[in-house]
């Protein structure tokens, strides 16, 4: 299996100002990676209406519904950081990690992301990382089997 996170799927200067725009921005990176079809965004937005994907520590991890799994071509992650917090149902979000998991692969990816973001020191490093490369280095363990 290839890496679920590539440097091309990282954007440290997100431009969105709303939750919906941030989900679309995360989806754009998944689309560019060839991991999802155009139908995946609707599935991600649908998921958000039923359950918030806010996880704590400035992190939201939007992903599609089970019904949207046909729009997933390969497991992948996208990572967008915002200098100005996004209002996510009343919570401040600075990191939006889009997830596309093929054949249940998202559960493993989710647990790795949750582990990184449960460490306040790692969150601070991600907030301060000066480049896409630096973020990639901090998150590279999500690619390890």
Automatic annotation (TrEMBL):
This is Mannitol-specific phosphotransferase enzyme IIA component. One of its GO terms (molecular function) is kinase activity. Keywords: Kinase, Phosphoprotein, Phosphotransferase system, Sugar transport, Transferase, Transport. GO terms for cellular component: plasma membrane. GO terms for biological process: phosphoenolpyruvate-dependent sugar phosphotransferase system. PANTHER family: MANNITOL PERMEASE IIC COMPONENT (PTHR30181), PTS SYSTEM MANNITOL-SPECIFIC EIICBA COMPONENT (PTHR30181:SF2). InterPro entries: PTrfase/Anion_transptr, PTS_EIIA_type-2_dom, Sugar_PTS. Pfam families: PTS_EIIA_2. SUPFAM superfamilies: Phoshotransferase/anion transport protein. Residues 3-142 form the PTS EIIA type-2 domain.
